[in-house]
Amino acid sequence: MSSVKNPLILRQLFHKETSTYTYLLACGNTKEAVLIDPVLDCVERDLKLLQELGVHLVYGMNTHVHADHITGTGKLKEALPDCKSVLGSKSGARADVYVAQDENVKFGNLALECRSTPGHTNGCTTYVLHEHEMAFTGDALLIRGCGRTDFQQGSPSVLFESVHSQIFSLPKHYKLYPAHDYKGVIFHIILLLLFLSMWHFFFPGFSVTTVEEELAHNTRLTKTKEEFIKIMDNLNLPYPKRLDESLPANLMCGVTDPVPS
Ligand SMILES: N[C@@H](CCC(=O)N[C@@H](CSS)C(=O)NCC(=O)O)C(=O)O
Ligand SMILES: [Fe+2]
């Protein structure tokens, strides 16, 4: 294990309605912070936390153009004018900073390396924090699963290559943090039927994994490429409930231009 020079403040936040994880990362020395995949509905929560921790948001970053929720980046920028939005250069959406393969996003003394991981969408980017041996995979890799490939330029073949070359090639002990966890949802439904509302207490789902765990236990990506393509082509998932509002808004950084009066 390499010695850690710069302390990291890390918070994993959850949006229950869309099972989305947002990550707050801040440099413990300088207090410069980034939010990865903020959700519009949770901006007030995130602003309060930034203030409580005494950190200064420099980037609102997205791993990709989300199809299931509206990004909070635009609203965060309105509240914090120093904050810039970051997105993969192949995303086709509006952002202040576009990142490509091997570029770094710096916050304080820490830096996130950008790895292009298309296949779920063209612009999908995995952000790697080498100093703390962790990566934020968006929807390219979910815990024991992966993002769907049936819309938004999705391609199972491209996703398979991305995950194997850019994520599974990281050291085996690296922690992987995804953009969603759907494992708790089944239990949620069962407990709702039992009129209980504390599902998260009993069945928290999964919050983090490692390269080693996914190489051994990912239900899709441990298969051959041919088997993987067959699985992905036959998922038959319903479209995300908020797709129609999310996609156009996220192409505009989560805010639509004001209508002239
Ligand atoms: N039911 C959810 C949407 C679920 C969904 O389609 N999730 C996406 C990631 S958000 S683009 C996905 O890739 N899922 C993979 C899988 O195996 O489930 C909603 O209505 O929001
Ligand atoms: Fe997605």
Automatic annotation (TrEMBL):
The lineage of its organism: Eukaryota, Metazoa, Chordata, Tunicata, Ascidiacea. PANTHER family: PERSULFIDE DIOXYGENASE ETHE1 (PTHR43084), PERSULFIDE DIOXYGENASE ETHE1, MITOCHONDRIAL (PTHR43084:SF1). Keywords: Membrane, Metal-binding, Transmembrane, Transmembrane helix. Residues 19-180 form the Metallo-beta-lactamase domain. Coiled coil: none annotated. This is Metallo-beta-lactamase domain-containing protein. It comes from Clavelina lepadiformis. The chain crosses the membrane at residues 185-203. SUPFAM superfamilies: Metallo-hydrolase/oxidoreductase (SSF56281). Pfam families: Lactamase_B (PF00753).
